[in-house]
Amino acid sequence: MHQTSVDLGGLLTVVSEHLYSTPMVCVRELVQNAHDSITRRQFEDIDFSVPTARITVNADESAGVLRITDSGAGLTEEEIHSFLATVGSGYTRKLREQIETGDGSDLIGLFGIGFLSAFVVADVVSVITTSFKDPAITLRYSSTDGHTYSVEPHETHPVGSTVELVLSKKHDSLANERRIASALTKYATLLKYPIHVGSDTAINSDPAPWRDAREFPPGERKRRELTFASRFEYTFEPITTLPVVPDGEGLADARGLLWIQDGGTYGTSDNRNLSVFVRRMLLDDDARDLLPRWAGFIGGAIESVKLTPTASREDLQRDDAYEAVKAQLTTAIIDGLERLIKQEPDTWRRVLRRHNNNLVGAALAEPRLFDLLADDVKVPTTEGDMTVSQLASRSPHRRLHVTLGTGNGFEDMLLRAQRVPVARGEFFGVLALLRRYAERNANELIELGSDDANRQMFVETTLDPLDRAFLTEHLAGDDEQLIPARFAPVSVPLVAVPDREAELKRLIEDDDADNRISASALRLARLYTNTIEEKPVVRLFINTDNQAIQELLAARKRQDPRAQTALVLLRSVKALLTTAAEGKSTDLSEALNGISETIHVLLEQPEGK
Amino acid sequence: MDVWAWLEPIQQELAESGHEHVSRMIDELPYLVQNSDPRSEAVAPELIAAARALGNPWLEVYARHWRMQHQIGNNNHGTTALRYATESLEFAHRPDTLECPQSICVTQDLSMAFESVDCFGHAADREAVCRETLTRIDARWNCYDCLHRELCDAVADQGRPQEAMDIATASIRELEAVDDEPSPGYVPVMARLHSDLGNPQAARDLCEKAEEESDGDEPSTIVQSRNLEWARACRLTGDFEAAIEHLPSIDDILVERTLSACWSKEVFALVEADVMENDFELGVSLQKLLDYSDHVGSLRTTVIVAEVHARLASRRGIRWLADAALTVGERARVQLPQDHGAMEQLAAARSEAEAVEPLPLPVDIAMIPSYVETSETSLEQDIQWLQQAVQADPNNELAAAYLGNAYGRAGHASLLTELLGSASHTDVAGRPGMLTIAMALLNSDLPREVVNQHVNEVSARLIGDASTAKQFVGYRIAAEQASRQDNWPLCVEHCQSALQRDNDAPGTRRLLASASMEMKDFATAATQLTVLADAEEEPGGDTWDLLTAATCLGDWATVRNRATRLGMDIDEGVGPIDETWSQCRVLLPAMEGLGAWTAIRTGPVTARVVEVSHPTMPIQHFGSVVALNPSPVNLHEKEEHGDDWMAVFPAAHVLVPSQHNAWVLDGVYPGIDEWSALRDDLRADGWGAWVATWNGYEITDSETDETHEGIFAFVASPPNVTPSEVNHRIVELTTTWPHQLAFRDLAEAAKADVAAHDARIERYGL
User: Is A407 helix (H, G, I), strand (E, B) or coil?
Assistant: First the structure.
């Protein structure tokens, strides 16, 4: 028996508990080693013919045995002692140092501990190997713990190696070809040499679309890309793909595919999904952080030589290359969306339907996207969903009206009466989107409920002082300021609009506030309310363009007693409109009595009089 | 006490009752805010609305708090945040909200808003709020940590760093006593205090250790404040290289707005130490910070940034910029609750500005406009010279126009409004240069109401002037403004008034033509474009536009005549031109917005749509004849796409709307020869056939289990052909095909047998 040069006990524990998240990773490592071995043979064996390169994985379910066979370089006895028995000095690293041509991306193993992972899942690990250097000699390495091992002659085996794992009870479910094929299809999709798992068709026979230089009829390439993408999406179907191409000679060397998922998203939903291949091997299938946070609807698979795996080989180091690729992917998404908008309007509309809200969030987070998306995304309005430009086109002077949901019922009501759509600012992103849109496109944004909105909607006019006094006396309630104004629609004679600022001043300066709010905070709050002028809490706008108001004032001038009846009706209208707008039943019964009274007066008079 | 504990059962309840989305927003909002993510502006209003809809006022307090954390804590809103912060304070102290733990946070938000207004002037008030709140809680509350850091800042802002340091140290001890770890937010607070107390090395060590121990997950606000204090400590220890290394970039500061004042002071110190360049770009950065803090009413920041900006501008010899910064700074200063040295600082900066020796003029003052056009001097230097040129001769039209343009590019909108106002009283007012200034203002990013107010004032003044030239400019400006508001009738009216005063104004005429096109008044557009086209030395853009207007008008003689002048070979007949030119795409209404439809150009600016839409589409475009706007929207892609490029034209007007009916054919693709035969046969009679198959459409024949390539196509038939005739014809054309297509809707409309179609649908799984 031989002994390895390092103490493996501790290392194995580390490998099993920390390095690898699932036992399938061990299969991945061994396939990787097999692949490296063929690469090595291609470099060193001048007689080697690439078409004979092949990796075969087969599983004997009943015996709990797994075999990985390659037509690679094989090992001599000396090599067995130096590579299989010395953790951390895997042959791959040595070979990579030797290969000066190319980028070494054909070589996958990096830490030389791939082989060690076999001991995590197997009770007995054997390697039957024939080196191309001496095809007549076949050897069998065998070990139960990786620490002590035997090397003995074995019956003839073609040049190459077979790693045979007698799986431990805990991991015997690994001996399942379907399971392995399914996992390897994703893991090994970029590997160069064919990998067969219980079938004549190699699981990696179809090259990744971005590595596939063949000519295809139009549409066929897209179809292949979508099929490829669907292998990486468990929950969603990809709608369309966006290419990732390397950025010249810098660190941003990623190439691959991104795609837009079909699952509907909301605002900040995050379904980002990114698989990263480093040196042809799937290293991280949850590298979502490489995608911008706003891209919650994007999936992808990329490969890179510049990205560096962490020791666990399942994550990526956060280095300069990481940042460069991250920026590269952001640009790829933006460019891809731009191309989609311009060249594939039908697909773009599907994307918009699925991801409208997510795209709103993306536009807000990424200024480059704002210009691209602002005219296409839709916002909910009182007249249904529409684009901001539609919203503008349906309002006088292309103003954008937005409500925050409550507290501006009057403006809302007036606009509804004119069928002017009002965007629902309480929904995701609407207010922020409109603010930026208005800034960019020079639209006026009217935030209902604000003083600005009132200024825009009610243009103050003047009245004869006698008229004003008359209307104030008969129509304005306590704490209401009567303001003659013009506003649309002219059919509305008057509205009472609460002055939120005046209300706030009252509330903060009221003695009751002292009981509720701490003295020091109240002092600060009053610093602010002291700057607000004292005024009534309700503004009663009288529409001087309204026919009823004009006739009422004419009646007053000629001292027509019927003016009193008209006033009763107007007071009722005021109360009803207040109820409708504020959602509070103020003096509803009085209003209804007023209407009855008016009808009574109207019908009481003899006909024709 | 976990002040967020009350949220958990609410979130669970929300998730279980189908409001999972609201439940998620509760988690997301703080995360977005702490990372200064602009999407927090998107989530907060929605969460508030949800809280109201669910009748949960505590949740509204929570959402209001985070909204203010973004508005004030990230975006440094000062006076502009006071109303909302005061309203929220009142809201958070009603009987149904008083017990909500975030009522305390909302109180702190108000205090923070006053800090943004003036950190020094309101320091005592802030200290009082913190101390009063602290009497109600102990170290087991999560807000204990945050309140103490704010207290430290408030005490230090009153010039008592040692006391602040004692508070910080004691609070950390208290936190540790209850097994709580002090937040990383303590690092910048204590680093500042170390430096204030004359021990910058301790500050450096603290920052360095914090970075080493960082898991990279701290909120960006904390990271950038730490970096800024780190840079300051490095500078104070004389290690300028490290100071430059740790100093946050201007891009970071444009996100972490609360750091603007400290960053500006730090930059000034580094320039003073001669380790940072005082260049035009730095001036641009400071201007951005100044404009912003002025805009959000962050008064103390405005004063500090204005002072730094002015002093650095003076050192570059740019007097006007120093003056402009000091005007803004002064406006903020007078609103400060306490002066705290502001008056003296601005006065010192003012003296420096007054002592600036301007760079001598490089050429004779009258030649300045042409000089700056070709020189490579900085924009701010050009502005300085142009101002001198305008001052020397206010009637120098070129100088005024260039100055307006330069202000616009540099983003000095307030100087632009001044220039517009003053120019309106000079000879420039009656010259095209005035329009340049007005356009720069119309293009500026000032709030629209401000722009409109200034432009209205000036245009009204010019229109009321006795000089016809000034009246022309007044109308012209008003027309431009109307066009930007899409108010086409007003635009037309103003253009016509302008042209009555100056008939030789091609720009105005072009605007009139395009406004008339918008209003579908093709006759006016054609009349104006004829004048313009006749004036062209070589037929060009105006002639092309005339082709479109004349086409819309049906004036085919003009179209033929002008197209020939453009070198096109057109048949010599009369009436509509109907030739077969190249394929293109035309933008026409789709289900949502506009879509690009394949068409064949039939003349210089006409095309006939050949793409058949799905029968259920509200509008069928097949056969429509459309007048095109002659500039393709995708011209910029022509080079990239080479021969694959196909022009996409906007439609100016639909001349002949489609009247065709469409029908769906679905089934096994018969092969290119068969399909082409059908298509050509139909097209010969003015019918349409269009394959709409998605790539990869495959059909399995359940009888043989064989898979075939599928076809999903639309056929368009003229309005006078009955469904029965269509049905008959399609049957006739496809009857020899190995697999019969399904067109059930057509058969049904034709009252023919649908059973055969149902069988095919079943057989092929259509």
Answer: coil
β-pairing verdict for B606-609 and B625-628: antiparallel
| Region label for B132, one of left (φ > 0), alpha (ψ between -120 and 50) or beta (otherwise) | alpha
- The closest CB to that of B591, out of A219, A349, A406, belongs to A349
Residue A21 touches partner B, C-beta closer than 8 Å: no
> Do the beta carbons of residue A162 and residue A128 sit within 8 Å?
yes
Q: What is the ipTM of this complex?
A: 0.70
Are the C-beta atoms of B481 and B463 separated by less than 8 Å?
Answer: no
Tokens of A69: 């066979």
The amino acid present at B611, given as its one-letter code, is E
Confidence of residue B58 (pLDDT cuts 50, 70, 90): very high
φ and ψ at residue A140, rounded to 5 degrees: -125, 115
Calpha distance B109→B127 (Å, rounded): 13
Residues 6+ apart with CB under 8 A from B408: B416, B440, B441, B443, B444
More confident residue, B217 or B342: B342
In 3-state terms, what secondary structure has residue A17? helix
Q: What is the largest CA-CA distance in chain B?
A: 99
Angstrom CA distances, B487 to A173, B401, B506, B511, B518, stand at: 73, 26, 21, 12, 10
Tell me the nearest-neighbour CA distance from B696 into chain A, angstroms.
6
In angstroms, the CA A431 to CA A330 distance is: 25
Q: Give the position of tokens 């009987």.
A: B95
Asked whether B333 and B303 are in contact (CB, 8 A), the reply is yes
Residues in chain B: 766
The set of residues, in sequence order, having a beta carbon less than 8 Å from that of B44 and lying 6+ positions away, is B29, B63, B66, B67, B70
Taking CA atoms, B704 is separated from A562, B701, B756, B757, in Å, by 89, 6, 18, 18
Q: Closest residue of A to B87, CA-based? A: A504
Contact of A438 with A431, CB cutoff 8 Å: no
Contact B314, B305 (CB under 8 A): no
Q: How far apart, in whole angstroms, are the C-alpha atoms of residue A487 and residue A137?
A: 100
H-type alpha helices, A344-475: 345-365, 367-373, 388-393, 409-417, 430-441, 451-457, 465-475
Instruction: Please give the Cα distance from B429 to A580 (Å, whole number).
Output: 52
Chain Cα centroid distance, residue B128: 41
The answer to whether B93 contacts A516, with C-beta atoms less than 8 Å apart, is yes
Token pair, residue B569, equals: 């070979």
Helices (H), B197-239: 200-213, 220-236
* Interface with chain A: mutation pick from B592, B594, B641, highest number of A CBs within 10 Å: B592
d(CA B766, CA B759): 10
| B24, B37, B80, B89, best to mutate vs chain A, most A CBs in 10 Å | B89
User: pTM of the entire structure?
Assistant: 0.68
pLDDT-derived band of residue B190, with 50, 70 and 90 as boundaries?
very high
> Is B265 at the interface with chain A, CB within 8 A?
no
Contact at 8 Å (CB) between B50 and A431?
A: no
d(CA B227, CA B233): 10
Which tens digits make up the pLDDT trace of A414-467?
887 788 898 988 888 888 889 888 887 778 888 887 777 777 788 889 899 999
Residue-wise pLDDT tens digits, B24-56: 889 989 988 988 888 888 888 888 888 887 788
Q: What is the pLDDT of residues A33-72, one digit of tens each?
A: 888 888 888 888 888 877 788 999 999 989 999 999 999 9
- What pLDDT, in 10s, does the model give residues B7-24? 888 888 877 777 777 888
